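FAQ
Q: What does a multi-component entry look like?
A: The components come first, one per line:
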Amino acid sequence: EVQLVESGGGLVQPGGSLRLSCEASGFTFRRSWMSWLRQAPGKGLEWVANIKEDGSDKYYVDSVKGRFSISKDNAKNSLYLQMNSLRVEDTAMYYCAKDSEGYENWGQGTLVIVSS
Amino acid sequence: EIVMTQSPATLSVSPGERATLSCRASQSVNNKLAWYQQRRGQAPRLLIHTVSTRATGVPARFSGSASGTEFTLTISSLQSEDVAVYYCQQYYNWKTFGQGTKVEIK
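Then the predicted structure of the entire assembly, as tokens:
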């Protein structure tokens, strides 16, 4: 059974940093593209970033380029999202998901609140 | 960026009746179109990918279709557990979502 468990969310001040983690199990992580997505309170879904199987290629939505960095550690079956220079508009539930035809597997999410 | 536009914003349907949700893409998505269901307080659940292929475990009352850049999700006989927000997503060119359609019981 595929399982994705996010952690690392919390309350942070504008301009601060957070590192989100996603622990994966139940599938061959090293052969999988992975994504981070987010959902602001009461709003729709937004893809944030994704990363190739071996970590060699990374892609970001324009609004986070230069501030967020996605990475994966295939030895630890873990996906990360380093978030710097956080803004109030980054407040959202952050999900990790396995890339496929659509996103069949999602974590339960970790909540990031950016507020002073 | 490919813009996905969903309609209506809210759909009220009686139990057992058909629900039809629409999604329009601003350009071709080459059949790379998925539908998700998100119940209150839960993570999204993949219902349909590649326009019309049901994901594992999805009931047969959910079906997807397309005509050019217009996509449709049909729930043939609405059940109470289908109350949710439904999103379409294209994954042909980057990944973008529609704004969602809320389905409620009339």
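Q: Is there any commentary attached?
A: Sometimes. For this entry: The mean pLDDT of chain A is 97.
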